[in-house]
Amino acid sequence: MKISAIRAYQIDLPLHEGKYSWSGGNAVSVFDSTVVAVETDEGLTGWGEVCPLGPAYLPAYARGARAGIAELAPQLLGADPLALGELNELMDRSMRGHPYVKSAIDMACWDLLGKASGLPVATLMGGHVGNDFALYRAISQESPAQMAKKIALYRKQGYHKFQLKVGGDPDTDIDRIRAAAAELSRGDVLIADANTGWTQHAAIRIADAVRDVDVYIEQPCMTYEQCLAVRRHTDRPFVLDEVVDGIDMVVRGVADHAMDVINLKISKVGGLTRARQIRDLCVSLGIAMTIEDTWGGDITTAAIAHLAHSTPERFLFSSTDFNSYVTVAFADGAPHRIKGRLSASREPGLGVRPNLKLLGKPVIDITNGDGVGTDSV
Ligand code: MG
Question: How far apart are CA 62 and CA 68, in angstroms?
Answer without folding.
Answer: 10
